[in-house]
Amino acid sequence: MTSVALLGTGTMGAPMARNLLGAGFPVRVWNRTRAKAAPLSADGATVAETPAEAARGADVLITMLLDAPSTVAAGEAAVPELAPGAVWVQMGTIGLAGLAEAHAAAGGVTLVDAPVLGTKLPAERGELVVLAAGPTEVRDRVQPLFDAIGQRTLWLGEDASAAAATRLKLVVNNWILTLTNAVGEAMALAGALGVDPADFLSAIGGTATDSAYAQFKGSAIINGDFTPSFALHTAGKDAELVAEAAGDSVRLDLADAVRERFRRAEAAGHGDEDMAAAYFASFQE
Protein backbone atom coordinates (compact mmCIF):
# COMPACT_ATOMS: atom_id res chain seq x y z
CA MET A 1 0.00 0.00 0.00
CA THR A 2 1.26 3.46 -0.93
CA SER A 3 2.52 5.33 2.13
CA VAL A 4 1.57 8.99 2.39
CA ALA A 5 3.06 12.01 4.14
CA LEU A 6 0.50 14.79 4.42
CA LEU A 7 1.73 18.23 5.45
CA GLY A 8 -0.97 20.65 6.56
CA THR A 9 -3.91 19.42 8.66
CA GLY A 10 -6.12 22.48 8.77
CA THR A 11 -9.71 22.86 7.60
CA MET A 12 -9.05 20.88 4.41
CA GLY A 13 -6.02 18.77 5.23
CA ALA A 14 -7.44 17.05 8.31
CA PRO A 15 -10.53 15.57 6.59
CA MET A 16 -8.40 14.64 3.58
CA ALA A 17 -6.09 12.71 5.91
CA ARG A 18 -9.07 10.95 7.51
CA ASN A 19 -10.41 9.87 4.12
CA LEU A 20 -7.00 8.54 3.09
CA LEU A 21 -6.79 6.59 6.34
CA GLY A 22 -10.33 5.32 5.79
CA ALA A 23 -9.28 4.02 2.38
CA GLY A 24 -6.48 2.04 4.00
CA PHE A 25 -3.46 4.19 3.23
CA PRO A 26 -0.81 4.52 5.94
CA VAL A 27 -0.54 8.26 6.62
CA ARG A 28 1.96 10.34 8.56
CA VAL A 29 0.87 13.92 9.18
CA TRP A 30 2.54 17.15 10.19
CA ASN A 31 1.19 20.58 10.97
CA ARG A 32 3.02 23.69 12.17
CA THR A 33 0.54 23.87 15.05
CA ARG A 34 0.77 20.32 16.38
CA ALA A 35 -2.57 20.54 18.16
CA LYS A 36 -4.32 20.55 14.78
CA ALA A 37 -2.63 17.30 13.79
CA ALA A 38 -2.79 15.46 17.11
CA PRO A 39 -6.48 14.39 16.88
CA LEU A 40 -5.67 12.42 13.72
CA SER A 41 -3.79 9.87 15.80
CA ALA A 42 -7.18 8.57 16.92
CA ASP A 43 -7.95 7.84 13.26
CA GLY A 44 -4.74 5.90 12.81
CA ALA A 45 -2.36 8.58 11.56
CA THR A 46 1.19 8.91 12.82
CA VAL A 47 1.74 12.48 13.96
CA ALA A 48 5.23 13.74 13.11
CA GLU A 49 7.16 16.54 14.76
CA THR A 50 8.72 17.85 11.54
CA PRO A 51 8.07 17.70 7.78
CA ALA A 52 11.20 15.60 7.40
CA GLU A 53 9.98 13.06 9.94
CA ALA A 54 6.59 12.84 8.23
CA ALA A 55 8.21 12.32 4.83
CA ARG A 56 10.78 9.72 5.84
CA GLY A 57 10.40 6.79 3.43
CA ALA A 58 7.01 7.96 2.11
CA ASP A 59 5.93 7.09 -1.42
CA VAL A 60 3.78 10.21 -1.85
CA LEU A 61 4.13 13.65 -0.30
CA ILE A 62 0.94 15.74 -0.16
CA THR A 63 1.15 19.43 0.73
CA MET A 64 -2.05 21.19 1.77
CA LEU A 65 -0.68 24.35 3.36
CA LEU A 66 -1.90 27.93 3.44
CA ASP A 67 0.56 29.67 1.15
CA ALA A 68 3.65 29.39 -0.99
CA PRO A 69 6.30 30.20 1.66
CA SER A 70 5.01 27.55 4.08
CA THR A 71 4.61 25.02 1.25
CA VAL A 72 8.10 25.54 -0.13
CA ALA A 73 9.74 25.50 3.30
CA ALA A 74 7.98 22.27 4.29
CA GLY A 75 8.64 20.72 0.89
CA GLU A 76 12.34 21.52 1.00
CA ALA A 77 12.58 19.82 4.38
CA ALA A 78 10.55 16.80 3.28
CA VAL A 79 11.91 16.02 -0.19
CA PRO A 80 15.31 14.58 0.87
CA GLU A 81 13.55 12.09 3.17
CA LEU A 82 11.15 10.62 0.60
CA ALA A 83 11.45 7.10 -0.76
CA PRO A 84 13.22 6.67 -4.11
CA GLY A 85 10.83 7.42 -6.96
CA ALA A 86 8.41 9.26 -4.70
CA VAL A 87 5.89 11.82 -5.98
CA TRP A 88 5.08 15.24 -4.53
CA VAL A 89 1.39 16.11 -4.94
CA GLN A 90 0.91 19.85 -4.34
CA MET A 91 -2.76 20.39 -3.44
CA GLY A 92 -2.88 23.78 -1.73
CA THR A 93 -3.69 27.04 -3.52
CA ILE A 94 -0.33 28.80 -3.84
CA GLY A 95 -0.57 30.60 -7.18
CA LEU A 96 1.62 30.52 -10.26
CA ALA A 97 4.77 31.91 -8.67
CA GLY A 98 4.33 29.62 -5.69
CA LEU A 99 4.00 26.55 -7.88
CA ALA A 100 7.17 27.52 -9.74
CA GLU A 101 8.98 27.74 -6.40
CA ALA A 102 7.62 24.34 -5.38
CA HIS A 103 8.77 22.88 -8.69
CA ALA A 104 12.28 24.17 -8.04
CA ALA A 105 12.20 22.81 -4.49
CA ALA A 106 11.13 19.37 -5.75
CA GLY A 107 14.50 18.82 -7.39
CA GLY A 108 14.43 15.35 -8.92
CA VAL A 109 11.12 14.40 -7.31
CA THR A 110 8.18 14.30 -9.71
CA LEU A 111 5.69 17.07 -8.93
CA VAL A 112 1.95 16.83 -9.57
CA ASP A 113 0.01 20.11 -9.63
CA ALA A 114 -3.30 19.13 -7.98
CA PRO A 115 -5.33 21.86 -6.26
CA VAL A 116 -8.86 20.97 -5.21
CA LEU A 117 -12.30 22.51 -5.55
CA GLY A 118 -14.44 22.39 -2.44
CA THR A 119 -14.52 23.53 1.16
CA LYS A 120 -14.81 21.86 4.56
CA LEU A 121 -17.98 19.79 4.08
CA PRO A 122 -17.03 18.33 0.67
CA ALA A 123 -13.60 17.55 2.10
CA GLU A 124 -15.20 15.69 5.01
CA ARG A 125 -17.45 13.76 2.63
CA GLY A 126 -14.66 12.91 0.21
CA GLU A 127 -16.43 14.90 -2.48
CA LEU A 128 -13.71 17.30 -3.59
CA VAL A 129 -12.93 17.84 -7.26
CA VAL A 130 -9.25 17.36 -7.98
CA LEU A 131 -7.71 19.45 -10.75
CA ALA A 132 -4.51 17.67 -11.73
CA ALA A 133 -1.56 17.98 -14.06
CA GLY A 134 1.37 15.60 -14.05
CA PRO A 135 3.19 12.91 -16.04
CA THR A 136 1.15 10.01 -17.34
CA GLU A 137 3.52 7.51 -15.75
CA VAL A 138 2.65 8.57 -12.19
CA ARG A 139 -1.11 8.90 -12.59
CA ASP A 140 -1.88 5.30 -11.67
CA ARG A 141 0.02 5.82 -8.42
CA VAL A 142 -1.78 8.97 -7.33
CA GLN A 143 -5.27 8.35 -8.72
CA PRO A 144 -6.28 6.02 -5.85
CA LEU A 145 -5.39 8.83 -3.44
CA PHE A 146 -7.50 11.29 -5.42
CA ASP A 147 -10.37 8.77 -5.45
CA ALA A 148 -10.21 8.60 -1.64
CA ILE A 149 -10.55 12.36 -1.17
CA GLY A 150 -12.60 13.40 -4.18
CA GLN A 151 -15.59 12.55 -6.29
CA ARG A 152 -13.90 13.44 -9.57
CA THR A 153 -10.45 14.13 -11.02
CA LEU A 154 -9.96 16.38 -14.02
CA TRP A 155 -6.57 15.74 -15.64
CA LEU A 156 -5.41 18.84 -17.48
CA GLY A 157 -1.92 18.14 -18.73
CA GLU A 158 1.30 16.21 -18.26
CA ASP A 159 3.67 19.01 -17.24
CA ALA A 160 3.07 20.25 -13.72
CA SER A 161 5.41 23.18 -14.27
CA ALA A 162 2.97 24.57 -16.86
CA ALA A 163 0.53 25.00 -13.96
CA ALA A 164 -2.59 24.09 -15.97
CA ALA A 165 -4.38 22.91 -12.84
CA THR A 166 -3.41 25.95 -10.79
CA ARG A 167 -4.49 28.26 -13.61
CA LEU A 168 -7.95 26.68 -13.73
CA LYS A 169 -8.15 26.76 -9.93
CA LEU A 170 -7.55 30.52 -9.96
CA VAL A 171 -10.28 31.03 -12.58
CA VAL A 172 -12.76 29.00 -10.53
CA ASN A 173 -11.76 30.74 -7.31
CA ASN A 174 -12.27 34.14 -8.92
CA TRP A 175 -15.83 33.10 -9.78
CA ILE A 176 -16.52 31.74 -6.27
CA LEU A 177 -15.09 34.78 -4.49
CA THR A 178 -17.06 37.13 -6.74
CA LEU A 179 -20.28 35.19 -6.17
CA THR A 180 -19.75 35.18 -2.41
CA ASN A 181 -19.39 38.96 -2.38
CA ALA A 182 -22.34 39.46 -4.73
CA VAL A 183 -24.56 37.51 -2.32
CA GLY A 184 -23.30 39.48 0.66
CA GLU A 185 -23.85 42.80 -1.06
CA ALA A 186 -27.35 41.82 -2.18
CA MET A 187 -28.23 40.80 1.37
CA ALA A 188 -26.89 44.09 2.72
CA LEU A 189 -28.83 46.07 0.12
CA ALA A 190 -32.00 44.18 1.01
CA GLY A 191 -31.60 45.15 4.63
CA ALA A 192 -30.91 48.79 3.75
CA LEU A 193 -34.09 48.95 1.63
CA GLY A 194 -36.26 47.34 4.29
CA VAL A 195 -36.52 44.06 2.40
CA ASP A 196 -36.38 40.77 4.27
CA PRO A 197 -33.16 39.13 2.98
CA ALA A 198 -34.95 35.77 3.07
CA ASP A 199 -37.34 37.12 0.45
CA PHE A 200 -34.39 37.80 -1.83
CA LEU A 201 -33.34 34.15 -1.61
CA SER A 202 -36.94 33.05 -2.19
CA ALA A 203 -37.25 35.31 -5.20
CA ILE A 204 -34.25 33.86 -7.00
CA GLY A 205 -34.96 30.31 -5.84
CA GLY A 206 -35.48 27.90 -8.72
CA THR A 207 -34.81 30.54 -11.38
CA ALA A 208 -31.94 30.79 -13.83
CA THR A 209 -30.34 33.34 -11.51
CA ASP A 210 -30.28 30.99 -8.51
CA SER A 211 -27.34 28.95 -7.30
CA ALA A 212 -26.80 26.52 -4.45
CA TYR A 213 -23.89 28.65 -3.33
CA ALA A 214 -26.04 31.78 -3.13
CA GLN A 215 -28.58 29.94 -0.99
CA PHE A 216 -25.87 28.46 1.24
CA LYS A 217 -23.97 31.68 1.88
CA GLY A 218 -27.14 33.78 2.02
CA SER A 219 -28.64 31.52 4.68
CA ALA A 220 -25.42 31.74 6.70
CA ILE A 221 -25.69 35.53 6.66
CA ILE A 222 -29.36 35.45 7.72
CA ASN A 223 -28.57 33.06 10.57
CA GLY A 224 -25.47 34.94 11.60
CA ASP A 225 -23.52 31.69 11.35
CA PHE A 226 -20.02 32.44 10.14
CA THR A 227 -18.42 29.19 11.28
CA PRO A 228 -15.57 28.89 8.79
CA SER A 229 -16.07 26.54 5.91
CA PHE A 230 -13.48 28.64 4.09
CA ALA A 231 -11.92 31.38 6.20
CA LEU A 232 -12.17 34.98 5.03
CA HIS A 233 -8.44 35.64 5.46
CA THR A 234 -7.71 32.63 3.24
CA ALA A 235 -10.18 33.89 0.64
CA GLY A 236 -8.39 37.24 0.73
CA LYS A 237 -5.10 35.47 0.10
CA ASP A 238 -6.62 33.67 -2.88
CA ALA A 239 -7.98 36.95 -4.24
CA GLU A 240 -4.45 38.33 -4.16
CA LEU A 241 -3.21 35.27 -6.07
CA VAL A 242 -5.82 35.91 -8.77
CA ALA A 243 -4.64 39.50 -9.16
CA GLU A 244 -1.00 38.41 -9.22
CA ALA A 245 -1.66 35.84 -11.94
CA ALA A 246 -3.69 38.24 -14.09
CA GLY A 247 -1.09 40.99 -13.92
CA ASP A 248 -1.67 43.59 -16.61
CA SER A 249 -3.01 41.07 -19.13
CA VAL A 250 -6.69 41.66 -18.37
CA ARG A 251 -8.81 44.10 -16.37
CA LEU A 252 -10.58 42.43 -13.47
CA ASP A 253 -12.78 45.17 -12.05
CA LEU A 254 -14.93 42.81 -10.00
CA ALA A 255 -11.88 40.99 -8.66
CA ASP A 256 -10.42 44.31 -7.54
CA ALA A 257 -13.64 45.09 -5.67
CA VAL A 258 -13.64 41.63 -4.11
CA ARG A 259 -10.10 42.12 -2.80
CA GLU A 260 -11.09 45.44 -1.25
CA ARG A 261 -14.19 43.95 0.39
CA PHE A 262 -12.15 41.14 1.93
CA ARG A 263 -9.58 43.68 3.15
CA ARG A 264 -12.28 45.77 4.85
CA ALA A 265 -13.99 42.79 6.42
CA GLU A 266 -10.71 41.42 7.75
CA ALA A 267 -9.76 44.84 9.12
CA ALA A 268 -13.10 44.87 10.93
CA GLY A 269 -12.16 41.65 12.73
CA HIS A 270 -13.80 38.97 10.57
CA GLY A 271 -10.67 37.30 9.17
CA ASP A 272 -11.14 34.00 11.01
CA GLU A 273 -14.82 33.73 10.13
CA ASP A 274 -16.26 32.20 6.99
CA MET A 275 -15.73 34.22 3.84
CA ALA A 276 -19.47 34.96 3.83
CA ALA A 277 -18.52 37.52 6.48
CA ALA A 278 -17.40 39.73 3.59
CA TYR A 279 -21.02 40.82 4.00
CA PHE A 280 -19.80 43.19 6.73
CA ALA A 281 -17.71 45.08 4.20
CA SER A 282 -20.98 46.63 3.01
CA PHE A 283 -21.25 48.80 6.11
CA GLN A 284 -19.39 51.89 7.21
CA GLU A 285 -16.44 51.23 9.48
TrEMBL record:
SUPFAM superfamilies on file: 6-phosphogluconate dehydrogenase C-terminal domain-like, NAD(P)-binding Rossmann-fold domains
Residue ranges of every copy of the 3-hydroxyisobutyrate dehydrogenase-like NAD-binding domain listed in the record: 164-279
Domain of life according to the entry: Bacteria
InterPro entries referenced in this protein's UniProt entry, alphabetically: 6-PGluconate_DH-like_C_sf (IPR008927), 6PGD_dom2 (IPR013328), 6PGDH_NADP-bd (IPR006115), HIBADH-like_NADP-bd (IPR029154), HIBADH-related (IPR015815), HIBADH-related_NP60_sf (IPR051265), NAD(P)-bd_dom_sf (IPR036291)
Keyword terms, alphabetized: NAD, Oxidoreductase
Pfam families the UniProt entry points to: NAD_binding_11, NAD_binding_2
Domain 6-phosphogluconate dehydrogenase NADP-binding per the UniProt entry, residue ranges: 4-157
A molecular function GO annotation: NAD binding
Active-site residues annotated for this sequence: K169
Similarity comment: Belongs to the HIBADH-related family.
Name under which the protein is recorded: 3-hydroxyisobutyrate dehydrogenase
Organism of derivation: Saccharopolyspora spinosa
